[in-house]
Specification:
Blueprint (H helix, E strand, L loop, with lengths): L1 H21 L4 H22 L2 E4 L2 E4 L3 E4 L2 H4 L1 H12 L6 H31 L5 H28 L7 H10 L1 H18 L4
Antiparallel strand pairs: 1-2, 2-3
Helix pairs in contact: 1-4, 1-7, 2-4, 2-5, 4-5, 4-6, 5-6
Length: 196
């Protein structure tokens, strides 16, 4: 019973955190990751071009304007990684924080490189810019998140399945799960008392 109470408390805390983070519209992710994305992109572009930064707009060679908007930061992608990390039970908080740092760090690096590559394609007038931007936007983010999660599962040896493992715990302790256990006990008892 104590284990169930601990599991239930863990579920309540983890999903409460997810609701609290999402409630104000993911502003925490944009607040944290906007400067962490913007400044590295600016420094990388400044290595190739004469770059100036004003707010969230990077001017290259005094001609090209590249604005890093909220969609470029991909706050929802970070939130999705948070969901995957918090919806798996039986992970100690210290390990969970390492997992979050790992997944957020990898996605941040990928996102910085994505914006940098697209910016250089835009400045060079590449005919593939539009299609690359759309592929990165619609397919790339989702694919990167899935790949990061699978890498995380391998590196941190995660055994649980997001959401499913929590539902399984709740089901076992529900009336449906308990009634099934009692039915199985009766069947086993009858089998033991059979005479041959």
């Amino acid at each position: 019973m104590k284990k169930y109470k601990d599991n239930l408390l863990s579920i309540i805390i983890r999903y409460f955190v997810l609701i609290i983070v999402a409630a104000p519209g993911l502003i925490y992710f944009y607040y944290i990751f906007s400067p962490l994305t913007l400044y590295p992109v600016y420094f990388l572009l400044d290595l190739l071009y004469c770059a100036n930064l004003t707010g969230s707009v990077i001017t290259l060679n005094g001609i090209y304007l590249i604005e890093i908007i909220g969609a470029c930061i991909a706050g929802s992608a970070y939130y999705f990684l948070l969901i995957l990390n918090l919806s798996v039970p039986n992970i100690k908080w210290k390990k969970r924080l390492k997992m979050l740092g790992f997944s957020f760090g990898i996605f941040l690096i990928i996102n910085i490189l994505r914006i940098f590559i697209l910016a250089t394609m835009y400045v060079s007038g590449s005919s593939f810019f539009d299609i690359s931007h759309k592929i990165f936007w619609y397919l790339g983010s989702t694919l990167f998140i899935v790949l990061i999660w699978f890498l995380e599962v391998k590196v941190f040896k995660i055994k649980g399945i997001p959401f499913y493992s929590d539902l399984k715990v709740l089901y076992k302790q529900s009336l449906f799960g308990k009634s099934k256990k009692h039915t199985n006990k009766k069947i086993n008892f009858k089998k033991k008392n059979r005479r041959y």
